[in-house]
C-alpha cells in the first residue's frame, strides 16, 4: 500500500479560509480601517450612547415626559447608528461599498447625531426630575454628544488637510488659425 492512499482522505493540501486560529466570524472582523483617535472615539460613542440609553430606561416616573422620550429616541438611535458605522468599518461590507461613500456617510451621521444628541441632552436637562438615573443619563448624553462632535471636528480637520485636486488651466492655441473668423 502506498502512502498516498492512506493519507489522501484525511489531509488537505490547502485548507480553506475558515480554518485555523481565526476561524468563522473572527476572520471577517478587522480593526485596521479605523486608526488612532477614530477607533477610540467610535468605541466611546457606542459605549456612552448605550449607557445614556440604559440610564434613561431605568427612570420609573417623570413629570414632564417629552424631554425624556426625545432623549430616549435620540440615545437609542445614536447607539444603533454608531453600531452600524462600526460594523461597516470592521467587516467586509466596507469593501463592497465605495470607501468614499462610507466616509461621507460617517461624516454626516456623526455630525447630525452629535448635534441632535446635544440638543436632546439640553432639553432633558430642563425637563428632568433630579433622580440619580436621570442625572447619569444626562451626563452620559453630554459625553456621547461631545464624542460625536469631537469626531466630526477631527474629520473636518482631516478633510481640510488633504490636498485638493486642481482644475487644468485653460491653454491657448499655439497653432495658427487657417480659417477666417467671419466665414
Ends: how far apart? 95 Å
What is the makeup of the main sheet?
Answer: none
Q: What class, by secondary structure content? A: mainly alpha
**Which percent band covers the strand fraction?**
under 5%
Q: Can you count the beta strands?
A: 0
Q: Report the total helices.
A: 6
Low-confidence runs of at least 5 consecutive residues: none
Protein name: CKLF like MARVEL transmembrane domain containing 6
Transmembrane segments: 77-95, 107-126, 138-157
Organism: Catagonus wagneri (Chacoan peccary)
Subcellular location: Membrane
Short synopsis of the structure:
By secondary structure, the protein is mostly helical.
Can you give a write-up of this model?
Its main location: membrane. It is a multi-pass membrane protein. Keywords: Membrane, Transmembrane, Transmembrane helix. This protein has 6 helices and no strands. It is mainly alpha-helical and 183 residues long. It has a domain at 40-159. It is elongated, with a radius of gyration of 27 Å. It starts with a helix and ends in a 22-residue tail after the last helix. The relative contact order is 0.13.
Amino acid at each position: 500500500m502506498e502512502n498516498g492512499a492512506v493519507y489522501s482522505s484525511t489531509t488537505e493540501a490547502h485548507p480553506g479560509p475558515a480554518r485555523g486560529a481565526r476561524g468563522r466570524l473572527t476572520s471577517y472582523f478587522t480593526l485596521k480601517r479605523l486608526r488612532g483617535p477614530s477607533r477610540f472615539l467610535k468605541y466611546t460613542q457606542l459605549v456612552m450612547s448605550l449607557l445614556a440609553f440604559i440610564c434613561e430606561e431605568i427612570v420609573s416616573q417623570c413629570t414632564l415626559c417629552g424631554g425624556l422620550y426625545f432623549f430616549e429616541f435620540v440615545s437609542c438611535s445614536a447607539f444603533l447608528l454608531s453600531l452600524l458605522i462600526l460594523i461597516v468599518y470592521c467587516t467586509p461590507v466596507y469593501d463592497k461599498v465605495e470607501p468614499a461613500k462610507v466616509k461621507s456617510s460617517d461624516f454626516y451621521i456623526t455630525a447630525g447625531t452629535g448635534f441632535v444628541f446635544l440638543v436632546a441632552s439640553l432639553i432633558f436637562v430642563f425637563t428632568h426630575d433630579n433622580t440619580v438615573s436621570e442625572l447619569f443619563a444626562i451626563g452620559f448624553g453630554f459625553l456621547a454628544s461631545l464624542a460625536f462632535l469631537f469626531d466630526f471636528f477631527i474629520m473636518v480637520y482631516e478633510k481640510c488637510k488633504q490636498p485638493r485636486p486642481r482644475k487644468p488651466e485653460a491653454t491657448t492655441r499655439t497653432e495658427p488659425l487657417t480659417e477666417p473668423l467671419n466665414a
